[in-house]
């Protein structure tokens, strides 16, 4: 498919949040169920078929910065400003685990699928790894002396990347959580990471730059995709595309090979897009879902000519 000749249409806008939205996740067992959260102190469940509010999944005690649907389960991990990590069964609306980092907010949560582990990073630069079978804390290790906002796990599961406030990218071996390498990439904090299946790593930062790095963290390519912070990077390997979002209110789609701009989805380009910072997004099959400081959720879809 050649997205360059296709259009991106807005399928729907979901409203109801009273405050900025920071996190979203699609259910692992039902692709038409979406969860969103932010400053509302609650996680909202939406029906993507009817494009409507379904229910308040659960109330929480502080702002939510990260959500993760645990693969092949009905469990949703919720990372909060308080340092709590709640695991909720979305089928029964029951709390399965109440985990905690020692201090500071939880900005990122991932799973290491092959090891059945859940990994989260606390604001103080410590990483925590729990068993997905019984939620016992297995490892706790220092990644950085400063805040770490983003974790990304390589598709093979063997390498975990972290991005910190100093602009450094850290690579750890997922077997023993020993650091393989670290390198300063950005002049400002790292705010997004995404692995390619090849092992190359994309890194976005508050300096508005996007770097494509090889497995040794050497720069292959560098572009300035946005005017402000790059808050998210998503790959669509089947279509050979990469998408980015930013505080500059734009969603952009690029050719994966040469990082040539294909689509700029923004109000300036005539789209009914967000009018404040786009904080998080995901690319789920043929849908791109974005959430924003403007309190809305937007669902986009590629339309063939």
SSE inventory with pairings:
Layout: E1 7-14, E2 21-26, E3 33-38, E4 42-47, E5 52-59, E6 64-69, E7 75-80, E8 84-89, E9 94-100, E10 106-112, E11 117-122, E12 126-131, E13 137-142, E14 148-153, E15 159-164, E16 168-173, E17 179-184, E18 190-195, E19 201-205, E20 210-213, E21 219-223, E22 230-236, E23 241-246, E24 251-255, E25 261-265, E26 278-284, E27 287-292, E28 297-303
Percent in helix: under 10%
Structural domain count: 1
Adjacency order of strands in the biggest sheet: 1-28-27-26
Output the number of helix runs.
0
CATH names the topology as Methylamine Dehydrogenase, Chain H
Helical/strand content category = mainly beta
Q: Which radius of gyration do the C-alpha atoms yield? A: 18 Å
Give the CATH class: Mainly Beta
Tell me what you see in this structure.
The chain contains no helices and 28 strands. The protein has 305 residues and is mainly beta. It has one domain: YVTN repeat-like/Quinoprotein amine dehydrogenase (Methylamine Dehydrogenase, Chain H). Strands 1-28-27-26 form a four-stranded antiparallel β-sheet, with no helix packed on it. The N and C termini lie close together (11 Å).
In short:
With 305 residues, this protein is an all-beta fold.
Features:
single chain, 305 residues, mainly beta, Methylamine Dehydrogenase, Chain H, four-stranded antiparallel beta sheet, WD repeat, WD40_repeat_dom_sf, repeat, WD40 repeat domain-containing protein, Apc4-like_WD40_dom
